[in-house]
Design brief:
Blueprint (H helix, E strand, L loop, with lengths): L4 E5 L3 E7 L14 E7 L1 H11 L3 E9 L2 H12 L3 E8 L5 E7 L5 E6 L8 H6 L1 H5 L3 E4 L5 H13 L3 E4 L11 H4 L4 E2 L3 H8 L6 H12 L5 E5 L5 E5 L2 E5 L12 H14 L4 H15 L12 H11 L1
Helix pairs in contact: 1-9, 7-8, 9-10, 10-11
Bound molecules: alpha-D-ribofuranose.
Length: 310
C-alpha cells in the first residue's frame, strides 16, 4: 500500500434523463416522461462513488470550456475529489448523455463524447506523479482506448493495481497491449460477451466467457450480473457473490457505483470477495434511487447494510 489513493482516468458527462413508461422503439415517440438533468459520465460516476465512500480520489479527465464543464468541476471539488488533473479543452464541448429510463428502471444511453474524446497521452504524462504513487488506477472506455492503454502501462510499471471497467462494450477487440497491463477487469454481461466473443446464456457460458478473457492475460475477472450479484474468477477459482434483493427504481450507474466501491475496498486492504460484496451493496443501494452520482450511497449507508447483513 502506498497512500490509499485511487486514480480514476475517465469521462464526465451531463446526463439528460427522461423517465418513460417504456423504451421508445425506432421511429416511436413515447410521452409521459419526467425530465431530470444530472451529473454523469462513467469516470466521474466512479470517482464520486469512491469519494462518497471515503476514498482518496484523483480524477484525470477533460471537460469543455462551457457551463456543463464548470458545473462538473464544481461538483467534483465539492465531493472532495482532487481535480488538479481535470483539464479544459478550448475547442470541444463537455460530454452529454441522453438517457431513457423505463418503468422497470432499465436504461438506454447515447453519448456525445465531446471533450472526453480529447483526453490524451499528454494528460497522462502530466499526471504521472499521482499515477505512479497511487494504490489503484481504474479506467473505462468513454475516453480513447489508446489513452487508457497508455495509462494502464504507466500505472503497471509503477506497481499500481490496474482495474478496467470495459464500458461501454468495445466495438472492436481490445488491444492485447492494454489487457496485459490490467490486473482486474470488471465487465457486465454485454461487455463480457463483446470481449470474449462468447454469448452468455447460463452459468456455463459465463464461465467460458471468463476463461476466454483470462486467456488474454487478465488475472482477475468480475462479471457484474445485476440483481444476481457478481461472478468473480481469480487464480482459476470461480466464486459467485450474491447481492441483496431491492426494489429497483433506476439502474443507471449501478456498475459505476460497484466499481468505485470495489476500488475503495481494495485500498482498505479488503480481500477480493469482500471487495465484491462491498461493491454489490453499494450498487444495490444505488438502484433504489434516481440518477447516476446522486444515487451512490454514503459510507454510513453501506456500513449499515454491511452490519445488518453480515
Ligand atoms: O454508466 C452510466 C453513465 O453512462 C451515465 O452517467 C452516462 O453519462 C454514461 O456515461
Amino acid at each position: 500500500m502506498k497512500n490509499n489513493r485511487i486514480v480514476v482516468v475517465g469521462s464526465s458527462n451531463t446526463d439528460m434523463v427522461i423517465r418513460c413508461p417504456n423504451m421508445p422503439r425506432p421511429g416511436e415517440t413515447v410521452l409521459g416522461g419526467e425530465f431530470l438533468m444530472n451529473h454523469g459520465g462513467k469516470g466521474a460516476n466512479q470517482a464520486v462513488a469512491a469519494a462518497k465512500l471515503g476514498g482518496n480520489v484523483t480524477f484525470i479527465a477533460k471537460i469543455g470550456d462551457d457551463i456543463f464543464g464548470a458545473e462538473t468541476l464544481e461538483m467534483l471539488r465539492r465531493t472532495g475529489i482532487d481535480t488538479s488533473h481535470v483539464s479544459v479543452s478550448s475547442d470541444l464541448p463537455s460530454g452529454v448523455a441522453l438517457i431513457n429510463v423505463d418503468a422497470k428502471g432499465e436504461n438506454s444511453i447515447s453519448v456525445a463524447s465531446g471533450s472526453n474524446a480529447a483526453l490524451s497521452g499528454k494528460d497522462i504524462d502530466n499526471a504521472m506523479e499521482v499515477i505512479s504513487t497511487a494504490d489503484v488506477m481504474i479506467a473505462q472506455l468513454e475516453t480513447p482506448v489508446e489513452t487508457v492503454a497508455y495509462a494502464a502501462e504507466m500505472a503497471k510499471r509503477h506497481g499500481v493495481t490496474v482495474v478496467l471497467n470495459p464500458a461501454p462494450a468495445p466495438l472492436s477487440p481490445l488491444p492485447d497491449a492494454l489487457l496485459r497491463n490490467v490486473d482486474i477487469i470488471i465487465p457486465n454481461k454485454t461487455e463480457a460477451e463483446a470481449i470474449s466473443g462468447i454469448s452468455i446464456t447460463d452459468g456455463d457460458s459465463e464461465r467460458k466467457a471468463i476463461e476466454a478473457i483470462s486467456a488474454k492475460g487478465v488475472g482477475t475477472t468480475i462479471i457484474t450480473l445485476g440483481s444476481k450479484g457478481a461472478l468473480l474468477c481469480t487464480g482459476g477459482d470461480f466464486i459467485m457473490v450474491p447481492t441483496m434483493k431491492v426494489k429497483t427504481v433506476d439502474t443507471t450507474a449501478a456498475g459505476d457505483t460497484f466499481c468505485g466501491a470495489f476500488c475503495v475496498a481494495l485500498t482498505e486492504g479488503k480481500g477480493l470477495v469482500d471487495a465484491v460484496r462491498f461493491g454489490n451493496k453499494a450498487a444495490a443501494i444505488s438502484v433504489t434511487r434516481n440518477g447516476a452520482q446522486q444515487s451512490a450511497p454514503t459510507r454510513e449507508e453501506v456500513d449499515d447494510v454491511w452490519e445488518a447483513r453480515n
